Amino acid sequence: MSRTERERAQADELYKGGSSMRLPSPRSASPEPNINQSTEYARPCPHCSPDNAFGWSCPIPVSDPNTDVEHAWPVEDGLPPGHQHCGNCENLTAVQAPSTTKCDFCQVYFCGIEVQGRCVATPLSTQSPHGMSDVGDLIQSADVYDCFDGNTVEVEIMLDYLTAQGITPRHIYREIVTHLQSQPGGFRPLIDLELFVDNHNVSPGVDPDPNAPRNRICRLCASEILLWGLRDWWVRERQKGFLEEDVMARKDCAEGQACSRQKDLDNHMIAPRPTDAANVSEAPPTNEMAEAPAQLPANILTPLPPIADLLQHL
Ligand SMILES: [Zn+2]
Ligand SMILES: [Zn+2]
Ligand SMILES: [Zn+2]
Ligand SMILES: [Zn+2]
Fold first, then answer.
1. Which helix (H) or strand (E) holds 92?
2. From CA 280, how far away is CA 48, in angstroms rounded?
3. Ligand 1: centre distance to CA 13 (Å)
4. Rounded to whole angstroms, how far apart are CA atoms 112 and 118?
5. Which of 42, 176, 277, 292 lies deepest, with the highest CB count within 10 Å?
6. Residue ranges of the E3 ubiquitin-protein ligase CHFR cysteine rich domain (predicted)?
């Protein structure tokens, strides 16, 4: 399918779903003949009606196809001016409405009306990563094990630690955000990896400037950051030395993350991921950098093998 066809198919789905949910029950006395046209025409957003309850109206409202089909907006013409689809409820959303927010990572808009706490891109520090409300969610997430290259021993050590310390996924997400904000490259390496692309069913707005500050975030993008940064967060957390003695006493495997036996009982958490190298300010943002050896943290507790040794295993 072409992009337009795909978008139209999505829009059809959307309006089908929307019409069954949102239309008043049909009046039996005079059935609406146009009721099925809502798959052909855009449905007005909550702000389109001039006398809506939200205190702000669309400068170019979308006509209701059920009452004014002549001026209705055909879905095949794309999005009506001043509107996008909400990344959560997927309803038509007025871009300029005061309740509308935009995620600075995926660039998707959120209506702020339909589902409290979900249809919103919040400031970075107050967002909750989607599907990760407690340690139980982490235990059930295959993505978490993927972050650790299937090193289940280490994942279990981490999960025990999180449980014992009462650390929530949201807390980890915030610490990763704070860490990234302290790096010269900020969130740029994650954006360059396209972590925030195509996570929603709706089409995004545009990124005004690749170097624009990233202030607001949606729940899905918060999850992406959590998963991206979890392993390195754990490397940093381990360095605080709060782990049980038997865990700390484990022998370091010299190959670290490059080792093919991640599940053996040696410690494989000694080297950060290569992508951290992209945070070095003088580094050019090339693809080669992603393969380059990582800069090793200076304050790590255990002695490190020479970089050349690490390189042999990359
Ligand atoms: Zn509107
Ligand atoms: Zn919404
Ligand atoms: Zn987002
Ligand atoms: Zn090993």
1. strand 92-94
2. 48
3. 20
4. 8
5. 42
6. 83-225
Q: State CA 205 to chain mean position distance.
A: 15
Centroid of ligand 3 to alpha carbon of 41 (angstroms): 27
DSSP 8-class letter at 24: P
Report how far residue 314's alpha carbon sits from residue 292's, in angstroms, rounded to the nearest whole number.
9
Dist. CA 158 → ligand 1 center (Å): 47
The distance from CA 114 to its chain's CA centroid, rounded to whole angstroms, is: 20
Identify which ligand lies nearest to the alpha carbon of 102.
Answer: 3
How far is the C-alpha of 220 from the C-alpha of 46, rounded, in Å? 24
Segment 217-273, tens digit of pLDDT? 999 999 999 999 999 999 999 888 777 777 877 788 878 777 777 767 677 776 544
pLDDT in tens, 72-99: 999 999 999 999 999 999 999 999 999 9
Q: Which ligand is nearest to the CA of 204?
A: 3
Tell me which DSSP letter residue 44 carries.
P
Q: How far is the CA of 260 from the centre of ligand 4 (A)?
A: 7
